[in-house]
Amino acid sequence: MAQISAKLVKDLRDKTGAGMMDCKKALSETNGDSDKAIEWLRQKGIASAEKKAGRTAAEGAIGSYIHTGARVGVLVEVNCETDFVARGEIFQELIRNVAMQIAACPSVDYVTTDAIPAEVADREKQIEMGRDDLAGKKEEMKEKIVAGRIGKRLKEMALMDQPYIKDSTMTVAELVKQVAGKVGENIQVRRFVRFNLGEGIEVEKMDFAAEVAAMQAA
């Protein structure tokens, strides 16, 4: 496999407007061939999606998914630029797939890592800093190890960083970019909520032995 240099990635970004990680993946998939990488990005719809990412997406739709057995349900809002696209089959299919993804990822609570509150990230850092395997390590080394672990942990909590359940070679973010490229509009997953049947309800556990004893005493 060809060595993918930072300059090669930057040059491809300058030519296409695609994100750095997308450019790096495109070059990896095409063995470092810039021309083929541009074609790869165009086929995936990523380059055109990046150029539209700054445009306002105020239309869209709220979709839902109820998992088999009706014990898990999801509501998700996905935005686009026009009502015409929002009503289209491609966009509606995206909403269904994103909702299904959320239902399949119980540890995901935020759309992106940027949306994770600072206090949550700080709490995760404190947990990692207290791990037994870090005891005795120098503070500088400990900070580096924890930074890597925190980055991984926060991605586990973010929807857009998850491997797509129907195609694990891409992330949910890449799926959204592909659809944005197909429909020619900016698409953003704005928010979601997951419902788990019975969540938050305290169920009184019956002590069978105590109940039998009480009945006998009566």
Task: Describe the structure concisely for a colleague.
Helices cover 51% and strands 15% of the residues. By secondary structure, the protein is an alpha+beta fold. The strands form 2 sheets. The protein has a 3-stranded antiparallel sheet with strand order 1-2-5. Strands 3-4 form a two-stranded antiparallel sheet.
Question: Any descriptors?
Answer:
218 residues, alpha+beta, Helicase, Ruva Protein, domain 3, Tetrahydropterin Synthase, Chain A, 3 domains, 10 helices
Largest sheet: 3 strands, antiparallel
- Specify the CATH architecture of the largest domain: 2-Layer Sandwich
Helical content band = 40-55%
The DSSP helix count reads: 10
Structure classification: alpha+beta
Q: Tell how many strands the DSSP assignment holds.
A: 5
Query: What is the CATH topology descriptor of the largest domain?
Result: Tetrahydropterin Synthase, Chain A
Mean pLDDT: 84
CATH class of the largest domain: Alpha Beta
What is the first-to-last residue Cα distance? 80 Å
Q: What general form does the structure show? A: flat
What percent strand? 15-25%
Domains, number: 3
**Secondary-structure element order, N to C:** HHHHEEHHHHEEHEH
Lateral arrangement of strands in the main beta sheet: 1-2-5
Low-confidence stretches: none
Radius of gyration: 23 Å
Task: Supply the CATH superfamily name of the largest domain.
Answer: Elongation factor Ts, dimerisation domain
